[in-house]
Amino acid sequence: MLDLDRYFLEFEAETARLAELARDADVQQPIPTCPGWTFEQLVGHVGRGHRWAAEIVRRRLPEPIPMGEVVVPAGPDERGEWLIEGARMLADAVRDTGPEQQVWTWRKDRSAGFWLRRMLHDEVVHRFDAELALGIEGDLAADLAADGVSDMLDTAAILSRPDIGVSSAFAALAGTGESLRFVATDADHEWLVTRSPAGVTWRQGHDAADVTVRGSACRLLLLLNRRLPVGTAGVEIVGDRAILDHWWSNSEF
Q1: What is the DSSP letter of 35?
Q2: How confident is residue 162, by pLDDT bands cut at 50, 70 and 90?
Q3: Helix or strand run (H / E) with residue 237
Q4: Fold that domain 4-134 belongs to in CATH
């Protein structure tokens, strides 16, 4: 994980980048990496998530609350400011409540700071959604991308467990010992993932695996979030590609 100050800094920066895209885009622009979504729906999803998480943190809630409906402002400048306002609400809630304050989350980490990190990585991926839709080649610092890979694998570990009672595509990632190794070529990170009947587990490690996937941390992040296809340029696959294909096909939110 990165330090807390870095999460605050990157969260503000990512929101500013998405807000700038939101100001200039046609709200009816389709988002190919989120089938069925328009730019307006993408912006609404991000802004609503920020406000929902901010409410959980601000009220120090021990249980989840329904995610309220939102109306994305029609004007381009207002859209950008609306996004920035929601992000500021969450950042202020974490600061005021204290990042170690216990609140509801859907992971083992019950700290208010969890929501800052989680919403940052959610926004990173959706900023790439917006850029891909607009034909813009985005970028991301390698260490932040690597942290996003870890965050995504934490999500897979939770959603693949058969005992949580949540219906999701990730449940198909439970396996019989199949292993995947993801190697970041621009950061000192390797993730060894194992599929067992109890779900997915992962750890940092250099052990051999059934399939090894090498690429920049950013490309690995986008691949794991299904924003790049298996076989995309700049990603090397060694071993049983079918295991990676299966992962990609069964990791959709």
Answers
A1: T
A2: confident
A3: strand 236-239
A4: Four Helix Bundle (Hemerythrin (Met), subunit A) (1.20.120)
